[in-house]
Design goal:
two-stranded antiparallel ribbon, 21% helix, 150 residues, globular, single chain, alpha/beta, 6-stranded mixed beta sheet
Length: 150
């Protein structure tokens, strides 16, 4: 499982010219599900995102997590995060989960984030053609890979 967490002052997702979800200060999460992901990957990535301390405290240091700033979450499914560019110039998506598993794991991550953060998590629409807009605050962007836990 891979995730890109972006600290945002605002973010939104639009589908067919209609804004379907938006947040103010918080985290925009792009989430890719690998075909070999398990419950352990869900647990790890949710814990990392929920406790990520990338918001500034009173001293201007990145010491606060989402709950400390009363921030919001927007999670967007993005299978292209699982792309392999090892060969040639056309990415391969063979390692991405099939749509049924991808949607199941995406929904499970969202539910686990809601439970862990005690916040309603806004989402895109799985497998939809979405336009995502954001104002990256900082910019601060953190990547996670549950298969390479650095």
């Amino acid at each position: 499982m891979k995730a890109v967490a972006q600290r945002v002052s605002q973010a939104s997702v639009t589908i067919e010219n209609e804004t379907t979800a938006s947040i103010d200060q918080g985290l925009l999460i792009l989430l890719g599900i690998h075909k070999e992901d398990t419950d352990a990957d869900i647990e790890w990535i949710v814990r990392k995102i929920a406790n990520l301390r990338i918001f500034e405290d009173d001293n201007g240091q990145m010491n606060q997590d989402l709950s400390a700033i009363q921030g919001e979450l927007l999670v967007i499914s993005q299978f292209t995060l699982i792309a392999s560019t090892k060969k040639g110039n056309r990415p391969s998506f063979n390692a991405a989960a099939d749509p049924a598993k991808g949607e199941d794991y995406y929904r499970r991550v969202v539910a686990a984030l809601e439970e862990t953060t005690s916040k309603s998590v806004k989402t895109g629409v799985f497998a939809a053609d979405m336009q995502v807009s954001l104002v990256n605050d900082g910019p601060v962007t953190i990547t996670f890979d549950s298969k390479n836990r650095e």
